[in-house]
Here is the input.
Amino acid sequence: MQKVEGSNPFSRFFENALHVGGSGSAREPETKWNHPRISPLFQALMRISAWNGRDARRSAAVPCCAHSAYPVAVRRVFLLLAVIAVATALLAVLTGVASGAGPEQGTIVLVKLELKASNGLHVRLENSEDGTVTLELRKEGQIATYKVPGEATEGGLKARFGRLGLIDVAFTPTKTLNSTEPGKGCTGAPRTLREGVFTGTIDFTGEREFVRIEGPQAIGSMSVISRWECPETEAMDPVARVSRRLATISRDEKGERESATLAAVRRGFSSYFVAGVAHRHSGGKSIFLGAKIEIREGMVIRRATEVRGPASAFDFDLAAGTASLRPPAPFTGHASFAVRPHGRGLWRSTIRVPLLGANPIDTGGPGFRVTLRPEYQF
Here is the structure.
């Protein structure tokens, strides 16, 4: 597994933290989804344990954000989150989730499937270069992903999701969408993108039967990225070149006065709740999300729910270090936060976040640390 050099992606949230009531966190997005109902931060939070395990050719260079002028509390938070992120990634390795041959060892086979599911959920299955297979389920602002080690070859794909199910399918191509020959001076097999039918075992039942996926076949695509031998090192990269993106945050003074983000993170980073509001006095909106991470039966399971509401649902006073939140449905309850001169900030919450296939997150439970920041981080 290759490590991407760069800073902990959570660090930016604390770069200019206004008030820290313990060690809460959220992180800035590094990648974006095309799905219109899911925010970039939502995607970033769902990939919390994979930040240092992605293939270098698909990762952006992340500049180090640690700064010697950080307040002591912020530096401690940064250190804690770095340890948590590394520990989570190591757990993924120990459970076998991040195992698999690297692309430099031969041909890469990438599979994508759209699966039919019960209860109105949209389901996508895909694998990555590092040998992992991800099953993603979405419904109206809610998402659950299951990541496991798997095997993909030109003949098909196989992945077991613990006791929840098995997907073992053979691929029959029906159409070639693209075929690329090696460039000048390079040798190797063509790189192809084909669509076709995957047949075999498709069987998955979510916890508490929140979803059922089964059927003899599914339509999907397969990319076969052959290794090319080329005179230039850069041309030997078997994965299409990826432009490097450096995420930036607008820091205009007016926006900072009208915008804020609050994060409440449970000890051990097993679950977290994040809220933000931008331009509250000029037509802005608020956004709330909660997420939970589990590692069991060789799976990394991430669940999250996001909802948007009016700016009035997140009120704050940055000078006083206070905030009050009342997120719309499907979230329930309300919360308040107040910084205290000495000790942790005072966090009182009855907010509960519903999740697919799991108990709601009780943000008023023990072990939460809260941070209030004068910027919109979504």
In short: The chain has a mean pLDDT of 75. The first helix runs from residue 40 to 46. Helices lie at 40-46, 72-94, 253-258. The radius of gyration is 22 Å.
